Amino acid sequence: PFLAQLRRAQALAGAVVKDQMLGQSPALQQARKLLQRVGPSDLSVLIHGDSGTGKELAARAIHAYSPRCNETFVALNCAAVPANLLDAELFGYEKGAFTGAASDRKGLIEAAEGSTLFLDEVGDMPLPMQAALLRVLEAKEVKRLGETRPRAVDFRLVAATHRDLDAE
Question: Model-level pTM?
């Protein structure tokens, strides 16, 4: 009931709210305006903030305000995936690429085709994996593990980190 009342109040105020952020504080309004400006572009975005500050909500808002909003938002917490499995999770693999690869598997980058891929805690990703991801962003193509030919991909990357990038 409270959320319904809040949404009704926003609708009555003439606000078209496509995101899931609730509230009307000046700071939230300023953040929403920034997300609305960033959303329509196709640029990759890095969101920086402490744990629990709503980085994924901001990423979902960027997606909601983008032309890609009708496609499925794909999210992965990089810190929750063991480093030795992260490449298979992101890039996918061909049948037989390694022991246990019984069939072809599309990675999350391919799964985000035409949509937005959100990588949370990207700073916890091993540096070689960050370099491989940068290569995908530059070339706009991905190679599954065990494949020799790249596949064209069209996705928008929104990444988040809690690390202080200026201190590193």
Answer: 0.83
Count of residues making up the chain: 168
pLDDT in tens, the chain (168 residues): 656 655 555 554 444 457 777 778 898 889 889 999 999 999 999 999 988 888 999 999 999 999 999 999 999 999 999 988 999 999 998 887 788 888 888 999 999 999 999 999 999 999 999 999 999 999 999 999 988 899 999 999 999 998 665 555
Residue 56 CA to residue 71 CA, distance in Å, equals 17
| Closest C-alpha among 76, 81, 78, 72 to residue 112 | 72
Check: CB of residue 50 under 8 Å from CB of residue 163.
no
Which is it for the CA torsion 30, 33, 39, 41, positive or negative?
negative
